[in-house]
Amino acid sequence: MLILAAWLGFRKVPTTTFDLTRHSVPLDQLVDGGPGKDGIPAILTPTFISATGATFLRDEDRVLGLTAGTEAKAYPVKILNWHEIVNDTIGGKAIVVTYCPLCGIGMAFEVEVQGRRHTFGVSGLLYQSDLLMYDHQTESLWSQIGMQAITGPLTGEKLTPMFLKHTIWREWRAAHPSTIVLSTRTGSFRNYDRDPYAGYGESSELFFDTTHFDSRYHPKEWVVGLEIDGVTKAYPFVELKKVPSPLVDRVNGRRVTVRVNAESRSASVVDENGRPIPSVTAFWFAWYAFHPDTQVFTPP
């Protein structure tokens, strides 16, 4: 668990064993989150159980869901709160599932970079209050939201995002009754029924500063964010609730359809041909920190 410490009002390059010689962001914007490298243990060999066997999950518990063909997997947030990274496969493809409790963001990526499979751990460092992963092969640091390496030998290399659903267990199970579920048998001793971030999502306080901040919305207002050819747009849930679903919109000249389930606070985005567009469900402050030029949807 990240140490829930207040930001001290100054910036300095954190003490770290990672080689920061090559970097693409200002080093004084990297922050020590508290637990140190691998202090939050990534899951390297996940085990799964059936939906009926997942008795530790309540209907309203949040999960991150992935599909590939007929295969469906659910990753409970109550487990990800304690591990943040799951190295896995789906549809025969190596992937990594990531979750940053500080930003409310779950993202999944393909992990082949420069023709080589990479596995990931938790660095213990943050950039713009967001999870910094590191790959075990080169120890480059990777920005979750930025989707690219920001220090180390792979600086500038990008990860390919996958379509991932951020929803509640009841909704995911109904849509995918044959889903398997990440098991609590992680090899670590954690109380997965205890939320180490209880109350954080409702508070307006941030544990760590960001370079950019916008007060139009509550810092923890959930938004659906997407990027199309360099243009970003955020759809705050508070605005989406004011219009019927699905919402048809245009981003950078392309038609997109946003489907929202207000009850489960989940959303998905498809293009004009009905193909899923990778999007990010995030706290407003986190989306804006990385995308200060973002467009924002408001009802006409």
What does this structure look like?
The chain is mainly β and 300 residues long. It has two domains: 27-175, Rieske Iron-sulfur Protein (3-layer Sandwich); 222-296, no CATH class. The chain contains four helices and 23 strands. The strands form six sheets. Strands 1-10-11-12-13 form a five-stranded antiparallel beta sheet, with no helix packed on it. The longest helix has 7 residues, at 77-83. The N and C termini lie far apart (42 Å).
Notable characteristics:
300 residues; mainly beta; Rieske Iron-sulfur Protein; five-stranded antiparallel β-sheet; five-stranded mixed β-sheet; 4 helices; 8% helix; globular; disordered N terminus
Condensed summary:
With 300 residues, this protein is mainly beta. Helix content is 8%, strand content 37%.
Q: What characteristic shape results from the CA principal axes?
A: globular
Cα end-to-end separation: 42 Å
The main sheet comes to: 5 strands, antiparallel
Specify the structural class: mainly beta
State the domain count: 2
* Rg, nearest Å: 18 Å
> In DSSP terms, counting alpha (H) and pi (I) runs of 4 or more, how many helices?
4
* SSE order, one letter for each helix or strand: EEEEHEEEEEEEEEEEHEEEHEEEEHE
Low-confidence parts: 1-10
The whole-number mean of residue pLDDT values reads: 94
Helix content: under 10%
Please state roughly what percent of the residues sit in beta strands, choosing from under 5%, 5-15%, 15-25%, 25-35%, 35-45% or over 45%: 35-45%
Instruction: Provide the CATH top-level class of the largest domain.
Output: Mainly Beta
Q: Strand order within the widest sheet?
A: 1-10-11-12-13
CATH architecture of the largest domain: 3-layer Sandwich
CATH topology heading of the largest domain: Rieske Iron-sulfur Protein
Counted beta strands? 23
